[in-house]
């Protein structure tokens, strides 16, 4: 066994409005075969006082795992709680191994090489402060001795895929699953089918799972004719086929893993273009979540009864004759019990339904749920919704285009629409306000709700009727951003799988060549071409602002990863991973700035048809200034006296930096809708100047960083000097600074000032580009001479992001 360990020393104070940022991270080594234990040590305390020392402290340390984009995230679990109201540091220790109850050991078993184990301090509610001064993470693991080898199986190209599909006839392959008993081998045959012809079929929606976890099935090349062969398939497909087969008759199913020749790039791209038609033509889509465990099966039963309590389609209990999982709870019994006790009912009765199920939970369920404050509905639902299926990019088409869809998890079967409804209720503000003391447990990604709300029932829509402006479809960029948190083994699929949902891209036959699915392009070329196509299509550079949704590039620093090198992918191209809320917390999204005076990009510089340098974006504009200093701004002036030019700065500070914790983009799921753009100045003044609660949140946040520890005041720019008409910028030392934030105020070479993302550096260049609503920041990387006799110097830059520059945001500073 080998060990890997990391530790940190250094005092940090965390308030509920601080950005959510790990105190310590450990990257799992590449030679990890399996993790045997994880040990934690943390020295921490809370603010040291409260009204009562009884009960839990609302400060804690969570453990989470940041994973590569193609892996599903793991649950966030509370590791330690501080002793309530005790001013002394306490040394907490814990060790998770195979003897640890279910949820924690299951979490450890899921860890893989490259995962990043994080310790994240958290505080909940105003007045509570979490102090952490040291921490250590140690893992013990079994190293890889040799790579597991899959059993050699016959070439499917020569046997099953010997005949190509006729794309002009919209031909597909179907898998005929032969009948069998539980212990029988899985036997199938392959046949050809033309979409729209007679003969029904179903489709399977699932996760491929681990390629090294394989099982064998018997496969005939054509309708049980000819010799059979034994083939390896992933364990996920094998378990699904074993569960779905009938005892007395065959079942025709389309499964991408077996019905598409995955090694044929051309066939793969052609079938991807037909995916919407395949799933909408299927008589039913079977969603396979896997064999599950006691907690996920309990989650399925709770979902069934929560939904039935609201819609009352079944009497429940012994009277239930519904297909699939039984409605075990009788809704009228719950209603009568509430009426008798006269207790307030929870949102849609979800707590009451959960309590009724809780009395039936066996010990294994309780251990797998693993909530630190006891059993809770959100803890149980996170066990279910952390299934990787809910974050696989392709399942959006598979489920939302289905005529009928059923969800299978082990022996439990429920309707897909039931699951969608309950997820929407769990994500509603009415439900979340009931449990602000719990960590933000992941439910289904928000894109499920946004697509469902926009299109109501995608499976029943003709794309040609909804592709026009004002139709049911969102713009493809909005869909892409909403899908950032979804996962794909191939980054190109993060775009290809979403094209049918975009207003401009929903008709496969009319897709422009630049963004048509093609696996002959590299992933960075796919995303670069999409970015250029969107710029040309919309005559705007707005898409460049959304690079702030990528990890390490948000306006606020959320972890310590360095700004990625330009060789990894074009820094100006939209990324395939990240967070939609970060991407939309930008100047371009929240404000109506017109820095480039309503110009448009020069289309001659972005020629997608003859582009000889696809990883370079050529744009016209001018150099505005160079960053000379990054610093803090001292908020030690009466904000009521701020002049008109600086009110935009105040609005950006409120909306993006969010010092009052009003929107909570940087520390949890966003809780409030944004104000209308036209109302922003009024809303900001009301919150910061007239609303005691808003100003109180800011002062409480400030107090958390300065009231409990002695530290020297920090150098900053005086706000008052920015308001003065003469005398220049003045400096001071102050404690009116939120130390959890990086310096976000800049001074430029020509005297301009403004706000910038944390990744900005001295020497970066502020530019106004044709087609940009906001200024952008570039970082020089090289210059070269092009053109022979008419040679000219061509400068190349990294793209850093957008900028707020006081006095130039409305385009009046200079004619382009």
UniProtKB/TrEMBL annotation:
Supply the InterPro entries for this chain.
HET, HetReg/Transcr_Mod
Describe the location of the Heterokaryon incompatibility domain by residue ranges.
Answer: 201-398
Question: What is the name of the protein in this document?
Answer: Heterokaryon incompatibility domain-containing protein
Q: Which organism is it from?
A: Botryotinia fuckeliana (strain B05.10) (Noble rot fungus)
Taxonomic classification: Eukaryota, Fungi, Dikarya, Ascomycota, Pezizomycotina
């Amino acid at each position: 066994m080998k060990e890997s360990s990391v530790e940190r020393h250094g005092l940090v104070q965390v308030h509920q409005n601080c950005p959510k940022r790990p105190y310590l991270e450990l990257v799992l080594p590449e030679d990890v075969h399996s993790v045997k234990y994880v040990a934690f040590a943390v020295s921490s305390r809370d603010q040291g006082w409260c009204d009562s020392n009884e009960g839990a402290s609302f400060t804690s340390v969570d453990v989470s795992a940041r994973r590569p984009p193609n892996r599903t995230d793991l649950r966030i679990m509370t590791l330690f709680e501080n002793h309530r109201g005790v001013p002394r540091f306490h040394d907490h220790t814990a060790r998770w191994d195979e003897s640890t109850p279910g949820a924690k050991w299951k979490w450890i078993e899921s860890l893989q090489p490259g995962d990043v184990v994080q310790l994240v301090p958290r505080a909940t509610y105003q007045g509570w402060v979490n102090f952490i001064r040291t921490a250590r993470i140690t893992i013990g693991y079994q190293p890889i001795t040799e790579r597991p080898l899959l059993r050699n199986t016959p070439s499917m190209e020569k046997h099953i895929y010997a005949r190509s599909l006729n794309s002009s006839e919209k031909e597909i392959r179907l898998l005929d699953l032969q009948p069998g008993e539980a212990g029988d081998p899985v036997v199938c045959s392959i046949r050809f089918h033309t979409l729209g012809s007679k003969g029904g079929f179903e489709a399977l929606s699932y996760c491929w799972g681990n390629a090294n976890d394989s099982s064998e099935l018997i496969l005939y090349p054509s309708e049980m004719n000819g010799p059979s062969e034994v083939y390896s398939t992933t364990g996920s497909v094998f378990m699904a086929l074993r569960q779905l087969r009938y005892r007395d008759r065959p079942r025709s199913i389309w499964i991408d893993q077996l019905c598409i020749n995955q090694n044929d790039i051309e066939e793969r791209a052609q079938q991807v273009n037909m995916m919407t038609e395949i799933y909408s033509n299927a008589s039913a889509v079977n969603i396979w979540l896997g064999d599950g465990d006691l907690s996920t099966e309990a989650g399925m039963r709770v979902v069934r009864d929560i939904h039935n309590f609201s819609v009352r389609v079944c009497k429940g209990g012994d009277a239930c004759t519904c297909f699939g999982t039984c409605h075990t709870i009788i809704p009228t019994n719950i209603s009568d019990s509430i009426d008798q006790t006269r207790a307030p009912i929870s949102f849609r009765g979800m707590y009451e339904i959960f309590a009724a199920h809780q009395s039936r939970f066996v010990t294994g369920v309780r251990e797998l749920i693993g909530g630190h404050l006891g059993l809770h509905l959100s803890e149980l639902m996170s066990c279910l919704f952390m299934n990787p299926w809910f974050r696989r990019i392709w399942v959006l088409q598979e489920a939302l285009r289905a005529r009928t869809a059923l969800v299978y998890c082990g022996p439990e079967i429920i309707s897909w629409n039931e699951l969608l409804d309950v997820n929407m209720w769990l994500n509603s503000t009415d439900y979340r306000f009931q449990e602000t003391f719990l960590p933000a447990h992941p439910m289904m990604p928000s894109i499920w709700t946004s697509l469902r709300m926009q299109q109501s029932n995608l499976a029943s829509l003709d794309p040609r009727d909804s592709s026009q402006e004002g139709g049911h479809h969102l713009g493809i960029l909005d869909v892409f951003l909403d899908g950032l948190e979804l996962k794909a083994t191939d980054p190109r699929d993060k775009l290809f799988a979403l094209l049918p949902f975009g207003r401009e891209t929903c008709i496969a036959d009319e897709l422009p060549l630049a963004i048509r699915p093609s696996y002959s392009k590299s992933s960075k070329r796919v995303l670069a071409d999409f970015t250029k196509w969107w710029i040309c299509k919309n005559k705007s550079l707005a898409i460049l602002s959304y690079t702030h949704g990528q990890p390490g590039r948000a306006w606020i620093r959320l972890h310590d990863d360095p700004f990625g090198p330009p060789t990894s992918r074009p820094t100006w191209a939209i990324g395939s991973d990240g967070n939609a809320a970060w991407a939309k917390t930008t100047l371009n999204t929240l404000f109506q700035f017109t820095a480039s005076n309503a110009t448009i990009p020069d289309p001659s510089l972005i020629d997608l048809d003859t582009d000889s340098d696809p990883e370079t974006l050529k744009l016209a504009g001018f150099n505005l200034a160079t960053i000379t200093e990054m610093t803090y701004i001292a908020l030690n002036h009466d904000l009521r006296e701020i002049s008109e030019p600086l009110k935009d700065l105040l609005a950006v500070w409120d909306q993006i930096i969010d010092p009052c914790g009003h929107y909570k983009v940087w520390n949890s799921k966003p809780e409030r809708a944004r104000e209308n753009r036209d109302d922003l100045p009024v809303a900001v003044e009301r919150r910061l100047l007239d609303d005691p609660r808003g100003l109180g949140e800011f002062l409480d946040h400030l107090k958390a960083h300065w009231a409990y520890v002695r530290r020297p005041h920090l150098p900053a720019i005086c706000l008052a000097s920015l308001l003065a008409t003469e005398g220049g910028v003045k400096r001071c030392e102050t404690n009116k600074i939120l130390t959890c934030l990086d310096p976000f105020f800049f001074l430029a070479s020509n005297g301009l000032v403004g706000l910038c993302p944390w990744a900005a550096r001295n020497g970066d260049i502020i530019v106004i580009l044709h087609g940009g609503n906001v200024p952008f920041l570039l970082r020089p990387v090289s210059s070269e001479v092009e053109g022979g006799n008419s040679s000219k110097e061509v400068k190349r830059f990294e793209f850093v992001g957008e900028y707020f520059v006081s006095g130039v945001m409305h385009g009046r500073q200079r004619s382009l």
